[in-house]
Amino acid sequence: MAQPLSLLSPPSTNNKTPFANATLSTRSSTTPLAIVLESSAADEMGRREETDMLLHDQDARLVYQRATSKQITKHFENNSQMWAAPLSTRDYMDLQKHLSETEASKGETAYWVLFDREAPETIISSCTTYRRDAMVNAGHGMRPVKAAVIADVFTLPDYRRRGMATKLLREVQQMLDNLDQRVEFSVLYSDQRPEFYGGLGWTPQPARHLRIVLGKAPVGMPPETDELKHIRVPQLVELGNKDLNMAKLRLSGLSDHGPNKTHAQLLPTQKLMRWHMVRSAVLKKKQLAHRQAAVAERASLHGASCKRRETGTEAWAWWTHEQRAPRLYVGRLVATRVRGMERDIKAVLGVAAAEASQLGFREVVVWEPAEQTVAAAALLVEELGHGASFVEEERPDMVPCLRWHGGERREGALVDAQFFGWV
């Protein structure tokens, strides 16, 4: 098992660990060099020959390896250029440190870098890999496996469109394919160019979301009843165990979709839920610091459940507060039946809408909504009125891209890819 790795701790040097260090030279397609155009064709040709030689020299100097503690810090400093706002770089680094100390990260995370051996302090391209519990069904029932989620892919602006990210990710593929503990599949969430990752073997998956847009009027918090309950983190543990069992049963049932298809799913574990809760809490603390103390210190509501006594059916959800959007993202929405539970789901989404409204958010977002979830949203916005609306649409970002072990081509897909799996 990989050794715990935080922003302050160096990687293990034991090559038997799953995310062992790797150092090798690779070829590069180009590098940032200034070429001064000369009027003479002969001079231009000479300069091109000189450039090719310099390129070849740097090719031989490129190194890929698991990051040292200093390189991990630089990796996130680089990422902060794109993802920190509106946080300061310091606050963004502090957020990453908190996340690295969660149960979902300790011993399950590794950082990978590409750099010039003559300038190791300059990280040209880098990424993070997270090992995750998962399951697959290849037509013969559910089988537990390990998966990897790849995140924080970043290349310095001066080196972009020069094949550096491609080099990095090719080496990450090789590393994942050769681990002692097999990684059955990997998922990479694309924010901008899913076709780029598709060319590297990570096939973009269908990605839809449901957006419930609140109207101008505040949404009151529905009171708790015998059926409707407000949920905070400690109460989610029991529901999380029930969710895992249901997820396994439902994936096993997908064998009816054809014996030649392989379906993959990241498991909605409590570790992932807590990772999202930590992220939400740290972001809230940092981004609400400038607001009134009463707002900043308000206890967050993390979920809701609705259980019908007459039927025994139940729906529940947990969510996170995305201060930067600002939106409330439903990390996981579960219903014990696949149809006929619109009223239960509506009640749960009503609590989510009220929580969003009290935080000043305008949207509640659900990834990969079921038909009955969309129907429940329609009932909710009709009840809310005051300009509330909803839309189900393709997601323009955070698109999951799937690659099977060894780059194998399989018919199948990533299923039930709700927000909990994103990093």
Automatic annotation (TrEMBL):
- Give the matching InterPro entries: Acyl_CoA_acyltransferase (IPR016181), GNAT_dom (IPR000182), GNAT_LYC1-like (IPR055100), LAT (IPR053013)
CDD domains (UniProt xref)? NAT_SF
Q: Where is the composition biased (Polar residues)?
A: 9-25
A GO molecular function assigned to this protein is:
acyltransferase activity, transferring groups other than amino-acyl groups
Q: Which residues form the N-acetyltransferase domain?
A: 62-238
Give me the ranges of the annotated region Disordered. Answer: 1-25
- Domain of life, source organism: Eukaryota
Identify the Pfam families for this entry: Acetyltransf_9, GNAT_LYC1-like
Q: Which SUPFAM superfamilies match?
A: Acyl-CoA N-acyltransferases (Nat)
Database matches in PANTHER family: LYSINE ACETYLTRANSFERASE, N-ACETYLTRANSFERASE DOMAIN-CONTAINING PROTEIN
Q: What is the designated name of this protein?
A: N-acetyltransferase domain-containing protein
